[in-house]
Amino acid sequence: MEFKKEFSQIIENHGQVMNNLTRSETIEAAVKRKEALVTANGCLATWTPPESTGRAPLDTLIVKRPETESNIDWDSPNNLPVDPETFEMLWADALAVMKAKDTVFVTDRVVGADSSYALPVQLLTDRALTALFTLNMFRPVPDDIESSIFAKKDFKLLVLPYDKIDISRYEGRLRKLSNGKTSDMAIVMDFEKRAGLVYGSAYGGSVKKLIFTVMNYYLPLENILPIHCSANENDKMELSLFLGLSGTGKTTLSAVANRALLGDDEHGWSNNGIANFENGCYAKLIDLNPEKEPEIFRAVFHKDDYRSHGAIVENAMMYPDGTFDLFDDRLTPNSRASYPLTFLSNIKASSTGNHPKTIVFLTADANGVLPPVSRLNPAQAMLWFLMGYTSKLAGTETGIVDPVSTFSRFFGQPFMPCLPHIYSDMLGKKMKEHNTVVYLINTGWSGGPYGVGSRMDITLTRAMVDAALDGKLENVKYKMDRIFHLDVPVFCPGIPSDILTPENTWKDKNAYKERAIKLSLEFSDYFDKAYGNKNIDDDVRRQCPGK
Ligand SMILES: Nc1ncnc2c1ncn2[C@@H]1O[C@H](COP(=O)(O)OP(=O)(O)O)[C@@H](O)[C@H]1O
Ligand SMILES: C=C(OP(=O)(O)O)C(=O)O
Ligand SMILES: [Mn+2]
């Protein structure tokens, strides 16, 4: 099947193609077609069905083909294969559905702020709101796109957020649900054919994470390291990366007035330095407090004419007068807003910058036992990068209700399809080459686990981040956390010293010790399971808690 040809034929032959409308035309189309409501401040509100309020990892599939399969780690539970024939059927079905729509929307954007590796992405969808999402999240095609290694290798993206797969034809081909039925949703990537399909998921994150995963497959083959991180820089152009799995604080902690933001989720590290992939941010709205997160609040809720606003609010509670209650989680704890970077007060317009001076690994430990800040030497950094520990919080993936401890390598395993050594070798080499300093910051629980203690206050976390980035933790005294093999500062400006040591914050010291040892053994078991036979250097292995 000629995937691209059939896709292009619809664009050429459909009677009603909205081809690259302007941003305000796209906003007006979304409102006119009742895909979204205009809110009191002018942004757009939409609500998706319950199966579409987060990502759907079990329905996210990679087409297994001889040309690409040897680069992919099929041992990873996140890399779920689908056969080429099934994908052909899905693509053909989706195109047939698209053909029958009264109107279709096309956007031509790129992903990647460094033109030398910007990936052109052409979207075809039946939804104006999906088109708007790509205007917010993907970048305009730059004038020098011809210089990109991907200039002639564009990616086609077909998105039908609200249609469902005709499951009668896919029994045995797609996932069986617990009720015995076949899943009617699929998010599929074909790296070889350079085609992606979102069929039946209306979560904006499905679109952006699909494209992120595609970049994470192509870039290492070009010797560029893709990273699941946010990035910002100070006025000396000293750049910091914030790596972390969903909910750990990439978006929150990087959007600050005193550092210019390059991007909030996905960056490439090439010989040129760091470049954001995207054009916008996708921020969580639950409990968003305008005092603690003023930048994000203003970006979404500033007042403007709706035709020039275009921030998209997904699944937040809105009252009939068009105002929101962001503390109401009845719909989902994963309410989101998508907005262009330019809505923030301090951004780096080019979205590109130097090699990172500092890297912060973020974890949200719901056990409440990891120190809130610690410094990692190169072997420790490699170990924590491989382990990618955090607690998955409710919402971002369907099915997560209470926090679950999880190890997700490179703080983004679901989006890193290649064999793991490809990413870890590159990071180790680049960190050494550029003398990058690494800190681990726990944005999770203190004073006890989830349910007993409380989440670290954002203001305190911000003070720890500032201290780390400003070099104020370089010359203080450290002590060793023997359970987790971490160097913990005994002093940090702006922070009461007793919270730097988790044990001090727990009333029941035995309970602390028990929980900490239990988690360290989970680290050790997971290391053996995932990396036992993977020839990891002994000095990295020794840094694993529980070893
Ligand atoms: N100490 C803290 N540091 C960072 N975020 C926190 C903290 N306490 C609570 N939060 C909340 O946790 C969430 C972090 O999510 P976000 O920044 O979107 O993470 P990511 O971008 O890594 O998925 C936000 O909703 C934020 O308000
Ligand atoms: C959009 C997502 O990213 P993050 O939570 O890292 O912002 C997601 O994981 O669905
Ligand atoms: Mn984020």
Summarize this entry quickly.
This protein has 547 residues and is α/β, with parallel strands linked by helices. It contains 13 helices and 30 strands.
Instruction: Identify the overall geometry.
Output: globular
- Give the tally of β-strands: 30
Strand count, sense and barrel status of the largest sheet are: 9 strands, mixed
CATH topology value of the largest domain: Phosphoenolpyruvate Carboxykinase, domain 1
Backbone CA Rg: 23 Å
Structural class assignment: alpha/beta
CATH superfamily of the largest domain: Phosphoenolpyruvate Carboxykinase, domain 1
Bound molecules: adenosine-5'-diphosphate, phosphoenolpyruvate, manganese (II) ion
Query: For the terminal residues, how far apart are their CA atoms?
Result: 52 Å
Strand content: 15-25%
* Count of discrete domains: 3
Arithmetic mean of pLDDT: 96
Report the top-level CATH class of the largest domain.
Answer: Alpha Beta
Helix proportion range: 25-40%
- What's the tally of helices? 13
Question: Runs with pLDDT <50, length 5+?
Answer: none
> What is the name of the CATH architecture of the largest domain?
3-Layer(aba) Sandwich
Main location: cytoplasm
Keywords: ATP-binding, Cytoplasm, Decarboxylase, Gluconeogenesis, Lyase, Manganese, Metal-binding, Nucleotide-binding
Pfam family, one: PEPCK_ATP
InterPro entries: PEP_carboxykinase_ATP, PEP_carboxykinase_C, PEP_carboxykinase_N
